[in-house]
Amino acid sequence: MNKKKVDLVLSNCSKLLTCRDGSGDIVGVIENGWVAIDDEEIAFIGQKEEVLEKIEYDESNVIDCSGKVVLPGFVDAHTHLVFGGSRSKEYAAGMTKGGKEKFIKAGNKTGINATIDMTRDVDEEILYHAALTRLHQMMNTGTTTVESKSGYGLTVDSEIKLLEINKKLNRDLPVDIVSTFLGAHGWPDNMEKDEYIEVLINEMIPAVAKRNLAEFCDIWCDDGHYTAEESRLVLKCAEKLGMRPKIHTDAYSYIGGSDLGIDMNMVSVDHLNYTPKSVMKKLAESKIPGVLLPATDFAVKHPVPFDAEAMVEAGMTLALGTNCCPGAWNTSMQLVIMLTCREHGVDVETAIKAATLGGAKALNLDSDRGSIEEGKLADIQIWNTGDYEDVIYKLGINQVEKVIKRGRIIVNNA
Ligand SMILES: [Zn+2]
């Protein structure tokens, strides 16, 4: 048999978490596994003998992974990466009883509207560099694919500016950025909601589609935000122009957003604090991933934390996201895994799978990433531990030693 020359070999991985489906255990562990990488792709995986009989590696770069956990790069399935300013004072005020009320009474704007003021008219260069810093932090903690939404501009020009920044970040950094148009994050102060929906449908969505700036279109469907009918209207329009729908929903109420997700066969439904168990069952049957955002539940001290245990029981596909935004400023999927387990009663294997293959499914990218399988992209991280449970056990410690993106080492903390 002809042996294949490969570029990179990961040898003696104490625990190789393939995270592939159908492997018996949740994360598809191979003990003492080997991975052979050819250019951008994973060529072979398996036990030493299985891999060695297929490869020639005299000239390959070999990384000895004994005593290490090796797993797919994280796919962060939900972020608001590009924004200006900071709401640290608002957040700090919210730590004490009545603190936030006092902060508002003193005349300070809060929430999305405060961030819009710090983003809409800010120079593109400044916004780019702020997002770049966050993206570097994401890479350093093991993330190799990031979804990034617009939604802090709410005018045609400013929303396009945010999506253009996504495009530049995708071009300039080795990680992949998947762009989502979220013009319906809210509506501007100076406009009625109905009036803004007209702008979304007649101006913004066509402008984004024409420039091919977004893969997906998202909306916030909740009491006090957009109704399910309004969401359908906006998302149908985007779908016609080639953007698949996603939805922020059931975060603070249940008004039919997750049902709409099923009805429109969305690529994902996100948040899900108030989702009834009957809808979880339907989401499971429809194979629509639920994207969970535990850092947000933690940061806002959510009165109704999402019920991940019930979602697992219903058989749903779960994905995780940092929801990196000014309201829940975090960039680490390791923190997200830790919170998912400790605060929402999920086992560590299920959380790791949700942070890798689950995220890829929520971005419709699981055909080429999210698991360590032959033929998929070599998006891989190496942890400086032999016990993957350390990710939830050793609090606030970055486990990442190396990150490989499309076969190239992009982070080396060794
Ligand atoms: Zn969000």
Automatic annotation (TrEMBL):
This is Imidazolonepropionase. It comes from Dethiosulfatibacter aminovorans DSM 17477. Residues 62-89 form the Amidohydrolase domain. Keywords: Cytoplasm, Histidine metabolism, Hydrolase, Iron, Metal-binding, Zinc. InterPro entries: Amidohydro-rel, Amidohydro_3, HutI, Metal-dep_hydrolase_composite, Metal_Hydrolase. The keyword Metal-binding applies. Residues 274-409 form the Amidohydrolase-related domain. Pathway: Amino-acid degradation. GO terms for biological process: L-histidine catabolic process to glutamate and formamide. It is an enzyme of class 3 (hydrolase). GO terms for molecular function: imidazolonepropionase activity; metal ion binding. It comes from the Bacteria. Transmembrane segments: none annotated. It holds the Pfam family Amidohydro_3.
